[in-house]
């Protein structure tokens, strides 16, 4: 049941849309896949969209926070988009703030923000 | 008839427990934010069992008193127990290198929260969310 999250290349950016509830293994596999893809494609930026996700627990949040830091180490910026109201509320109540993460309301705004961050 | 308990032995059981919880919450008429709170709380409790006790069980039931309806999540394990309950309820305390969101987070997500732990018998956590 281990499914891989597709990672799409768009110019010098990578685009990821999380479409189903993440289990631990899928999340960890995604972490590895994304870093390899950044390395392979020399991507400078990544947008990860969470529009279809209706909850994030502390484990998924940790994997997410880690992959953002790891990407930064490699020289790629990550923007998170599409966090639903229910997800934002539960994450903060859980005590998870992900403060240094760049976010945008939706995919479109996320791509714009990423372009600005990358200085194009 | 829906099975209201999930044995937690591996990571997949965490997914099964929160899916069951979400279904029951939906059936009861909880809104999307409360559904997310309940699902997240179950995920944290199930992961605690998996990480610290090895195995245990999550039971999810509908409850009702004179005034209101709600959902109760019962987390039971026969693991090593928690030696310092006060410490484990402090924000930021974690022995597993996680985010330390754990139990204080669950308490904030739910309306009622109680914990009993005995090094010889394991840990029992009960938490309730009432329908508003």
TrEMBL record, chain B:
CDD domains: HATPase_RsbT-like. It comes from the Bacteria. Residues 34-125 form the Histidine kinase/HSP90-like ATPase domain. Keywords: ATP-binding, Nucleotide-binding. The keyword Ligase does not apply. Pfam families: HATPase_c (PF02518). The keyword ATP-binding applies. One of its GO terms (molecular function) is ATP binding. InterPro entries: HATPase_C_sf (IPR036890), HATPase_dom (IPR003594). Coiled coil: none annotated. This is ATP-binding protein.
